[in-house]
Design a protein that fits this description.
With 469 residues, this protein is of the alpha/beta class. It is built from 17 helices and 14 strands. The strands form 3 sheets. A 6-stranded mixed sheet has the order 6-7-5-8-9-10, sandwiched between helices. A 4-stranded parallel sheet has the order 2-1-3-4, sandwiched between helices. Helix 1 packs antiparallel against helix 2 (42-64), helix 3 packs parallel to helix 6 and helix 6 packs antiparallel against helix 7 (168-187).
């Protein structure tokens, strides 16, 4: 494989290659089967008719369901362009290849490969980026044909993750994903990497370079997994301490660059890096948020999801993504200004399903409404499961907090009438800080209050409670 150019100099010039496979509908073959074949006996004919009708009904039910929105080849190539920029590359050119099916040897076919090689050379590109996953042999064949470094989509995403990982945990997770990505690709290069031949007269004692490298990688994978297991154990202990108190956790999820970190900063007054670059947030951050009911909740910011998020990354970041699995409520943040919002939401659903978190209580948050035209913005309506906000401009944040407050069951809020002696300064200060006070009257050394407070507060003022309800 050609070596990468130096890391500290000028930007690498990348030539992008997108793929568009013309899919063929499978419904035609399904409907073709249902009408074929006749039976000689009346009884079996009735059974066949019933089966045919059932198949027809089933086919109709499937056809009625709206297809899940998908990225077009052009939209996918646009996203690759953004990913390449996030990795620090300069775009030298791009090519979109349309085929009926992928070529097993080179993905795009030898003829097109020569055409791309010429275009990349004329654009002075030193890197070929494929918007597709490549097998080890495909990558090797393409590199031989174009004499350039070749990187597939998964490798590009792993590189961006490596650039943005700041904490030791994040770096370990990225390294594990990279090692697991590299391992099967060693097998594809066995002949080149072998110190020994494979024929008569070449056998002898010793270990091939491939076996040595593979053993080293396995050893490193075991070491990284052990370190990550220690991180997971510490995180589990921290979570156990948090869960011993009645504090709910709310997890922010969404497509990369949907504005999660900006929203997180607005809700928590934190200073997490908020960047237009993809995958700016890799390391999990948890901060406290005070809701309108004065309840405290913990808000967790997570790594952004993306189309075809590499499985190695989902596995490596499982310790981080456990916050999503354990959350009481998931805030699914979408970019309202993106024309691909529906397609991005489908990809988020896929990752949530992989994390077995798709059935968690969820609130949709349509962010960046300040980027919409005024007429479109005025037509937006919130409902029970949807809130429109602009984290950058602070629009709709109060509504969002009220909605979160209403959806959480932990430390439930209730109303009560209290009579607290004026000398009980600590209790009165507690109510001022942790409860909503609707009325307050002073009578004969007592303070009569009507409050709404979490159960944890109600227990502490139990002796002065007159009535609840």
């Amino acid at each position: 494989m050609p070596e990468p150019s130096g890391g500290g100099g000028a930007k690498e010039r990348a030539f992008l290659v997108g793929m568009d496979y013309r899919s063929r509908s499978s419904s035609r073959s399904l409907s073709g089967k249902s009408g074929s074949g006749k039976s000689s006996s009346g009884k079996s004919n009735k059974g066949n008719l019933a089966a045919a009708q059932a198949a027809k009904d089933s086919s109709a039910a499937v056809s009625k369901a709206p297809p899940a929105p998908e990225f077009s080849a052009e939209e996918s190539l646009d996203e690759l362009r953004t990913l390449a920029a996030s990795a620090g590359a300069e775009i030298a050119g791009e090519f979109l290849q349309r085929r009926d099916r992928p070529d097993p040897a080179t993905l795009i076919g030898r003829g097109k490969l020569e055409e791309i090689a010429g275009a990349a050379a004329s654009a002075s590109a030193n890197l070929l980026l494929f918007d597709h996953d490549l097998t080890a042999s495909q990558q090797r064949n393409i590199e031989k044909a174009v004499n350039l470094r070749v990187i597939d989509r998964t490798q590009l995403i792993l590189d961006i993750f490596a650039r943005h990982a700041r904490t030791r945990e994040g770096q370990l997770q990225v390294e594990l994903a990279q090692l697991e990505y590299m391992l099967p690709r060693l097998a594809g290069r066995g002949v080149e990497m072998s110190q020994l031949g494979g024929g008569i007269g070449t056998r002898g004692p010793g270990e091939t370079q491939l076996e040595t490298d593979r053993r080293k990688i396995y050893r490193r994978i075991r070491h990284v997994k052990q370190q990550l297991e220690n991180v997971r154990r510490i995180r589990a202990q921290q979570r156990q301490r948090r869960e011993s108190a009645p504090v709910a956790t709310v997890a922010l999820v969404g497509y990369t660059n949907a504005g999660k970190s900006t929203l997180f900063n607005v809700l928590t007054q934190a200073e997490v890096l908020a960047s237009p670059r993809m995958f700016a947030t890799l390391d999990p951050t948890i901060r406290g948020v005070k809701l309108p009911s004065k309840r405290e909740v913990l808000l967790s910011d997570t790594v952004g999801f993306i189309r075809n998020l590499p499985h190695t990354l989902v596995s490596a970041f499982r310790a981080t993504l456990e916050e999503v699995q354990r959350a009481s409520l998931i805030l699914h943040v979408s970019d309202a200004s993106s024309p691909l919002s529906a397609e991005q939401d489908v990809q988020v659903e896929k990752v949530l399903k992989e994390l077995e978190a798709e059935s968690k209580p969820r609130l949709r948050v349509m962010n960046k409404i300040d980027l919409l035209p005024a007429a479109q913005r005025e037509a937006l309506r919130d409902d029970a499961g949807l809130v429109h906000v602009s984290a950058a401009k602070g629009i709709g944040i109060g509504t969002l907090l009220e909605r979160i407050d209403g959806m959480l069951c932990e430390d439930a809020v209730s109303r009560a009438r209290l009579q607290v002696p004026q000398k009980e300064g600590k209790t009165l200060a507690l109510l001022e800080a942790k409860a909503r006070i609707y009325s307050r009257e002073y009578r004969e050394g007592m303070v009569e209050l009507e409050v709404e407070a979490p159960e944890s507060v109600m227990r502490r003022v139990k002796e002065w409670t007159v009535s609840r309800g």
